[in-house]
């Protein structure tokens, strides 16, 4: 039995292993999955732990007791979806370092031009050319990379990546900077790219972040705020009122929403209505009138 995956979710790593969320409780065994969206432990009865990659805040190696022996484990610090509080879990599997590098690269590593420049400064000419080409283009097949430096064989490129570029990056930034993907969606074009090398990390030049649609309508005596919240349960929507600012927060498994909206006029923070239907949130805020201003001043 395989776990259900969401749309466009792909399995990156899968291995038998264990998880513990409370050091006073026992280890739970099952299959650990790392996808392009989340980390979770799956048992035949279902998923017993999961966290979106975007909620992971730290990845370290720690020794823990496992079957009467001290063994290295991966400690994952993450923000809970419900409360936003930071929690920890410990996971263990045979290929520990492979998982640590991959989780770190996908969840925490951020590649910007300064990072690339730091790594490139330690490389020789052809390795530097390969890295800067991938920074500019985002991804490339091994044929493309061989053409960039006129390499005689594909093996020359693989050796440069595995023996020079990635070890240099690990020494400088703590993680490989290039990763091979059999299949991955280019966020900029929506195209599925097959059998290519990519810059590791979540950010690339030209990568477009999905923008939340927000409209603010001034209707004279009140203000309507309309916001698109895809895949959110109404009970998970949090509103925080200020006299001239509205903050809207909500979490789903794959996305966190947090919008601070400046309002065109002061509003009565005690009088508002909200409606959520078909992924659209509508909030109506009553403007402060002279009468309400006097009432507020008497409190």
Summarize the structure.
23% of the residues lie in helices and 43% in strands. It is α+β, with helices and mostly antiparallel strands. It is globular, with a radius of gyration of 24 Å.
Rounded radius of gyration (Å): 24 Å
Distance between the termini: 62 Å
Helix residue percentage = 10-25%
The assigned structural class equals: alpha+beta
How do the SSEs run, as a string of H and E?
Answer: EEEEEEEHHHEHHEEEEEEEEEH
* Integer average pLDDT: 85
Contiguous uncertain segments of 5+ residues: 202-210, 291-299
Q: Can you give a write-up of this model?
A:
This is HSP20 family protein. It comes from Candidatus Hakubella thermalkaliphila. InterPro entries: HSP20-like_chaperone, PH-like_dom_sf. The protein has 299 residues and is an alpha+beta fold. The protein has 3 domains: 11-107, Roll (PH-domain like); 113-199, Winged helix-like DNA-binding domain superfamily/Winged helix DNA-binding domain (Arc Repressor Mutant, subunit A, Orthogonal Bundle), CATH 1.10.10; 214-298, Immunoglobulin-like (Sandwich). Helices cover 23% and strands 43% of the residues. It contains 6 helices and 17 strands. The chain has helices spanning 96-107, 113-120, 125-137, 142-148, 154-173, 290-298, and strands at 11-20, 28-35, 38-43, 46-52, 56-66, 69-79, 86-93, 139-140, 178-185, 192-199, 214-218, 222-228, 238-241, 245-251, 256-262, 267-277, 280-287. A 7-stranded antiparallel beta sheet has the order 4-3-2-1-7-6-5, covered by helices on one side. Strand 16 (267-277) and strand 17 form a beta hairpin. Helix 2 runs antiparallel to helix 3, helix 2 (113-120) crosses helix 5 and helix 3 (125-137) crosses helix 5 (154-173). The longest helix has 20 residues, at 154-173. The chain is globular, with a radius of gyration of 24 Å. The chain starts with 10 loop residues before the first strand and ends with a helix. Mean pLDDT is 85; it is low at 202-210 and 291-299.
């Amino acid at each position: 039995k395989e776990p259900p995956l969401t749309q466009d979710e792909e399995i990156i790593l899968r291995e038998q292993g264990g998880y513990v969320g409370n050091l006073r409780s026992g280890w739970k065994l099952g299959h650990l999955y790392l996808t392009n969206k989340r980390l979770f432990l799956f048992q035949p009865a279902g998923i017993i732990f999961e966290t979106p990659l975007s909620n992971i805040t730290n990845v370290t190696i720690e020794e823990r007791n496992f079957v009467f022996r001290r063994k290295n484990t991966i400690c994952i610090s993450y923000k809970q979806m419900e409360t936003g509080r930071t929690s920890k879990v410990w996971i263990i599997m045979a290929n520990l370092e492979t998982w640590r590098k991959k989780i770190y690269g996908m969840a925490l590593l951020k590649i910007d031009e300064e990072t690339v420049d730091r790594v490139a400064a330690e490389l020789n000419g052809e390795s530097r050319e390969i890295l800067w080409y991938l920074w500019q283009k985002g991804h490339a097949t091994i044929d493309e990379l061989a053409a960039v430096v006129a390499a005689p064989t594909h093996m020359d490129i693989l050796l440069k990546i595995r023996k020079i570029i990635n070890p240099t990056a690990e020494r400088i930034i703590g993680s490989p900077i290039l990763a091979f993907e059999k299949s991955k969606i280019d966020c900029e074009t929506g195209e599925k790219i097959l059998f290519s090398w990519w810059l590791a990390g979540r950010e690339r030049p030209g990568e477009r972040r999905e923008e939340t649609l927000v409209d603010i309508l001034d209707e004279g005596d009140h203000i309507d705020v309309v916001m698109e919240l895809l895949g959110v349960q109404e009970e998970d929507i949090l509103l925080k009122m200020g006299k001239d600012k509205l903050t809207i927060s909500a979490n789903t498994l794959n996305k966190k929403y947090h919008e601070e909206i400046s309002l065109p006029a002061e509003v009565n923070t005690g009088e508002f209505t909200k409606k959520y239907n078909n992924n659209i949130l509508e909030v109506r805020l009553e403007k402060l009138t002279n009468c309400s201003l006097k009432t507020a001043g008497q409190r």
